[in-house]
Specification:
Layout: E1 5-14, E2 17-25, E3 29-34, E4 40-44, E5 48-56, E6 59-66, E7 71-77, H1 82-93, E8 97-99, E9 111-115, E10 118-123, E11 126-132, E12 136-141, E13 145-150, E14 162-166, H2 177-188, E15 200-209, E16 212-218, E17 222-226, E18 231-235, E19 239-246, E20 252-264, E21 267-276, E22 281-285, H3 290-297, E23 304-308, H4 309-321, E24 325-326, E25 340-344, E26 347-353, E27 357-361, E28 366-369, E29 373-380, E30 387-394, E31 399-406, H5 410-419, H6 450-480, H7 483-497, H8 502-530, H9 550-565, H10 571-584, H11 587-651, H12 653-658, H13 664-673, H14 675-688, H15 694-701
Parallel strand pairs: 5-8, 19-24
Antiparallel strand pairs: 1-2, 1-7, 2-3, 3-4, 5-6, 6-7, 9-10, 10-11, 12-13, 13-14, 15-16, 15-21, 16-17, 17-18, 19-20, 20-21, 22-23, 25-26, 25-31, 26-27, 27-28, 29-30, 30-31
Helix pairs in contact: 6-11, 7-8, 7-13, 9-10, 9-11, 11-13
Amino acid sequence: MADTLEFNEIYQEVKGSMNDGRLRLSRQGVIFKNSKTGKVDNIQASELAEGVWRRVALGHGLKLLTKNGHVYKYDGFRESEFDKLSDFFKAHYCLELMEKDLCVKGWNWGTVRFGGQLLSFDIGEQPVFEIPLSNVSQCTTGKNEVTLEFHQNDDAEVSLMEVRFYVPPTQEDGVDPVEAFAQNVLSKADVIQATGDAICIFRELQCLTPRGRYDIRIYPTFLHLHGKTFDYKIPYTTVLRLFLLPHKDQRQMFFISLDPPIKQGQTRYHFLILLFSKDEDISLTLNMNEEEVEKRFEGRLTKNMSGSLYEMVSRVMKALVNRKITVPGNFQGHSGAQCITCSYKASSGLLYPLERGFIYVHKPPVHIRFDEISFVNFARGTTTTRSFDFEIETKQGTQYTFSSIEREEYGKLFDFVNAKKLNIKNRGLKEGMKQSYDEYADSDEDQHDAYLERMKEEGKIREENANDSSDGSGEETDSSFNPGEEDDDVAEEFDSNASASSSSGDGDSDREDKKPAKKAKIIKDRKPRKRQPESKKGKDPNAPKRPMSAYMLWLNASREKIKSDHPGISITDLSKKAGELWKAMSKEKKEEWDRKAEDARRDYEKAMKEYSGGIKADSHRGDRLKKKKQEKQVKGKGDKKGTSSKSSSSKSPAKGMSDSFKSKEFVSSDESSSAESKKEDSEDEGAASPPPSSEDSASGSD
């Protein structure tokens, strides 16, 4: 027979609500871990007194009674699991697992039995319902009536608030059955009564949640917060965890995690957060004699103590609650602090990476354990590139986004997440990255970073593509600017307006050399800036595809085989199974797929070179076509303007002889650049050659 039995999706009944979790039975005892809170219930095998198997709403249930009167209920079993559990109880716990059905007659008259911390209402030998007396908040009596009031349960949609029992009078003298009933209830009920003096009192402590200043009175079994408006009584049994976190401004924050939470109207506070100044000291005297202090606290506290206020509160709470205090581990941010400044929802706060989870302070406080994290993700900031977002998704599907984290914190946080073996999105569960958390542990070496290597490889490819595209765009920019042509135009324009002396020609040539050079420099600086957005266009569909890794090549080849070996397997389970097979594969087989991946990479690099060469060739071809088109346009304009200048010169030879000679280039440039010269030319033509002119007729007769 197996030494352990494990059951998933088992529900523990606590205060009327069903909390799901995992149940494990071993030789040593029974362990249940709550999936929501991470709280662990551990029942030693020697403490078990009775085990009952019965039919309940969620299938079948198991009720365990301990020798000290505690009752534990677990539901969600299948009927077929009874034999397995029964044999296990006989072999390891020496207990007979009894089958006992509930009474469903619907009668309201029966017998009340008190057993340990359980009130059972029975009809005959069958129980109708059971009430854990720890759920009772108040018990009042009437003439022949007892009223039980219950703690409100925030997790349940409907809560039972009150039950009344009619107790008939008896003939026995000296015994009041109503008072006897009430005393049996009150002896086990969770009724908080501030009787006696407090062990110690801390005055005017600053609370962040619930906000305000409170006096904290420390009693043996509960904590009393007394404020100007509200009072809270917190039993130590509801305290899950204690935290002591250093603030960036050298103050200290003391966290108390509560389940169930304290209530203020409709608001629920799952955390009690106290804020202390680091320099504030206190001298504390416990309201107990030294013998009582030594007997109760076993040296953890003394009657007279002094020191920092936060240290005194921490020592007292640790001794009374009997839970360790969690402090930040080895993590240090960019600024040397043990926390990271970030924003959650609309509020700015601090994120503390702890040894077993993350905690965010403070509005609202968030505590996320590593064992409930599915994966984390480092995302680009939505508003600026100077920050990034840190996303956490839990196994229940809840997502937390901590935004506006400084870019300098990325390296430290990434190393921390990597060291804790948390899954990073898009990387998956790689070899050697499997989580090493004990699933039943109380939630209180460097690896090869495949994700980072992949990012580097993609960055190299993007850089190569960017260089290729920048080469092509540079050639287009150069082709659109033709210094030679502009030099010629400018030189002729200056020559036409200058005298024939060599000195003026030299001066003009100097100006010609300077002006185009200056113009070229300006254009070269500006053009790439205009063309910069072109690099943001989508990928070319004709570009070669990046090569796959060795794992992806193997997965594509083995996917059908895995499906045939495991019919009906889901995509998620298939990926997990493939990861396990790849991890278990021998080194020789992996090397074979590594060689294939290397061949694919070489083919990709070869195809990429050919693709880049084709882009450059297309760019040169386009430049040549563009240049030819421009030359044709210039030539066409020159021919048209040349004919017009001929006709004007033949019509007015006298005018042409009197003025200095003007070339056709001067005319074309003069017409395109100056509207006034056009006007003058048209006036000159009108004065010299009115239609029909006498000179034209004379030449015709000749």
